[in-house]
């Protein structure tokens, strides 16, 4: 008996819900045949079979939530995995590694053979990919163990990736600006000329019969053909995503290598899988829409509702231009494909008005090129989603009278006030573990400073703020801002914050509900100064007021603790010096 455990479906979430089984117990399935539709955070994903075999048990019913790593499907003992299938095994497989051999001493170089592939590891952010900023080596260079190879931009930092070997660089997979998925090839080591450009005919025939061209060295499956590889794994992944036929793409890179730009241009030119020319694609757009019976469902990302909508309209998913999140096909994409088939598309630079379905004002349709959210903005989006899903936020708002302030650096005063309040009420200077229901109250105060930038929101940290005076705080903040501008901010510059400050009032805004970043439990927002008239015992006086907004996680803090903390902040801020 073989067990198939639910893998991480790409969302980084601990579980997924069964939407619909596509097979039943007793069925004999082929490798990569869709077995079940699982719903993750905001997407429905089809999970393929990892084996050729007979299903003996389906572990769960529609609606059941299955944890990642739990058994999902049981196969009989005759099932064989793709890795174990002799027909799909290449004669000289490339050795895939993501780290140096753990058995080798750290100070000794690790010997490699031709064809070693270093795959991009998780760089400590838990994100699915990273962007190449700058290569520090070139093809043909001989590297030493731990020599920096490339600068990769993750969530909010630029990380240098060291070489796991003492070896010669055969191939660099990607150019500056390219996004590489974790687990995808980054650098190939060994003699670049030692790997054959194409597979042996016998191997190609075997691979075609097994249907697994991914295991053939130097070949890639395109449609029903196996063609010589002139593209890296990154290019192949992009081609699969855009459904581009690599056999129709002419490479513009070094030695005729296909680049990402070539693939994207081929998509615009209509060189998709199943087409033989640009004219054929245009003809298919003007002809009746193809049916979906001959399409591989794994080639398209669409929810069951969208698939059903496409079937009702008779629209092939291959003709739909995905505009949804993470390249998913939406109902609007299906409708657009239907309209394109009914009449030849017309190019226009102006918005097109169409009658409203309700008979009222016309609906304006504007074609906009979607922008990929990645890097800092992607990290921000994921962090906000995590906070929204886990934190129980409550916000207290109050004003501090800062009329007595001399001209000085307000940011340094905010940091000082947070330090003072953390000593008065330590409950808000802590981390909270919502799974174990444990909290860690910190003796030191490490203040995260929210910094706005064109690339997105950074939150570098002023470590040991309770041990720094105003001059040291200003110097640290200036240093962090400089690093953000030059994209030299490191991971250690952004880790370990125990409480966060958001000075949104430097731009605009009086009060707000700033978002707590777990495992922290509090964030202080400072609004824009204002002057107001106040009635006192001595008459009416003009006062300078600072709006404050304190958001705290009500799972970890009581309202009384938060109120005492805010009162302490105000007490320190209202001091003249």
Key traits:
Single_hybrid_motif, lipoic acid binding, 4 domains, OB fold (Dihydrolipoamide Acetyltransferase, E2P), 577 residues, EC 2.3.1.-, Dihydrolipoamide Transferase, seven-stranded mixed β-sheet, five-stranded antiparallel β-sheet, alpha+beta, single chain, CAT-like_dom_sf, 21% helix, globular, 33 strands, transferase
Would you summarize the structure shown here?
This protein has 577 residues and is α+β, with helices and mostly antiparallel strands. Helix content is 21%, strand content 27%.
Walkthrough of the structure:
- The protein is α+β, with helices and mostly antiparallel strands.
- It has ten helices and 33 strands.
- The strands form nine sheets. Strands 23, 26, 29, 30, 31, 32 and 33 form a seven-stranded mixed sheet that branches. Strands 1, 3, 6, 8 and 9 form a five-stranded antiparallel sheet that branches.
- A hairpin with a 2-residue loop joins strand 27 and strand 28 (456-458).
- The protein folds into four domains: 2-82, OB fold (Dihydrolipoamide Acetyltransferase, E2P) (Beta Barrel), CATH 2.40.50.100; 96-100 and 109-194, Beta Barrel (OB fold (Dihydrolipoamide Acetyltransferase, E2P)), CATH 2.40.50.100; 288-342, Dihydrolipoamide Transferase; 376-573, 2-Layer Sandwich (Chloramphenicol Acetyltransferase).
- Helix 2 (233-242) packs parallel to helix 3 and helix 5 (304-313) packs parallel to helix 6.
- The longest helix has 16 residues, at 375-390.
């Amino acid at each position: 008996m073989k067990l198939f455990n639910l893998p991480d479906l790409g969302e980084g979430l601990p579980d997924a819900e069964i939407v619909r089984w596509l097979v039943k117990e007793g069925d004999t399935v082929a490798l990569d045949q869709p077995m079940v539709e699982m719903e993750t955070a905001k997407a429905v994903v089809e999970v393929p079979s990892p084996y050729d075999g007979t299903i003996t048990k389906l572990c769960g019913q529609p609606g059941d939530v299955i944890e990642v790593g739990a058994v999902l499907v049981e196969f009989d003992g005759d099932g064989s995995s793709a890795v174990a299938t002799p027909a799909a095994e290449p004669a000289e497989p490339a050795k895939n590694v993501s780290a140096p051999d753990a058995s080798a001493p750290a100070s000794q170089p690790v010997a490699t053979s031709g064809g070693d592939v270093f795959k991009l590891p998780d760089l400590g952010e838990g994100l699915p990919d990273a962007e190449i900023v700058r290569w520090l080596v070139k093809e043909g260079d001989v590297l030493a163990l731990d020599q920096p190879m490339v600068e990769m931009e993750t969530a909010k930092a630029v990380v240098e990736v060291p070489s796991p070997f003492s070896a010669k660089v055969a191939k660099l997979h990607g150019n500056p600006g390219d996004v590489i998925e974790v687990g995808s090839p980054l650098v190939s080591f060994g003699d670049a000329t030692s790997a054959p450009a194409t597979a042996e005919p016998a191997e190609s025939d075997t691979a075609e019969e097994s249907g697994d061209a991914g295991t053939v060295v130097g070949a890639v499956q395109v449609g029903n053909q196996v063609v010589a590889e002139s593209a890296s794994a990154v290019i192949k992944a992009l081609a699969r995503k855009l459904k581009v036929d690599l056999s129709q793409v002419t490479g513009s890179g070094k030695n005729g290598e296909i680049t990402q730009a070539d693939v994207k241009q081929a998509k615009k030119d209509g060189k998709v899988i199943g087409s033989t020319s640009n004219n054929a694609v245009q003809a298919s757009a003007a002809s009746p829409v193809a049916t979906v019976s001959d399409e591989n469902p794994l080639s398209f990302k669409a929810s069951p509702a969208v698939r059903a909508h496409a079937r009702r309209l008779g629209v092939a998913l291959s003709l739909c231009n995905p505009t949804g999140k993470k390249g998913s096909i939406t109902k609007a994409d299906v409708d657009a494909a239907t309209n394109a088939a009914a009449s030849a598309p017309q190019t226009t630079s102006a918005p097109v008005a169409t009658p409203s379905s309700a008979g009222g004002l016309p609906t304006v349709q504007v074609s906009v090129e979607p922008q990929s959210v990645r890097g800092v903005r992607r990290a921000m989006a994921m962090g906000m989603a995590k906070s929204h899903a886990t934190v129980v936020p409550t916000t207290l708002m109050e004003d501090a009278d800062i009329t007595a302030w001399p001209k000085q650096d307000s940011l340094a005063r905010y940091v000082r006030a947070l330090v003072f309040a953390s000593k008065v009420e330590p409950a808000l200077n802590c981390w909270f573990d919502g799974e174990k229901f444990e909290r860690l109250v910190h003796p030191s105060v490490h203040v995260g400073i929210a910094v706005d930038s064109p690339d997105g929101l950074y939150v570098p940290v002023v470590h040991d703020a309770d041990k720094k005076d105003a001059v040291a705080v200003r110097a640290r903040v200036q240093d962090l801002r400089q690093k953000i501008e030059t994209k030299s901010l490191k991971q250690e510059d952004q880790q370990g914050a125990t409480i966060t400050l958001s000075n949104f009032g430097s731009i605009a805004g009086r009060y707000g509900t700033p978002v707590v970043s777990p495992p922290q439990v509090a964030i202080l927002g400072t609004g824009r100064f204002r002057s107001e008239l106040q009635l006192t015992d001595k008459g009416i006086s003009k006062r300078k007021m600072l709006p404050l907004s304190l958001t705290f996680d009500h799972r970890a803090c009581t309202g009384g603790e938060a109120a005492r903390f805010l009162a302490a902040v105000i007490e320190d801020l209202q001091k003249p010096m």
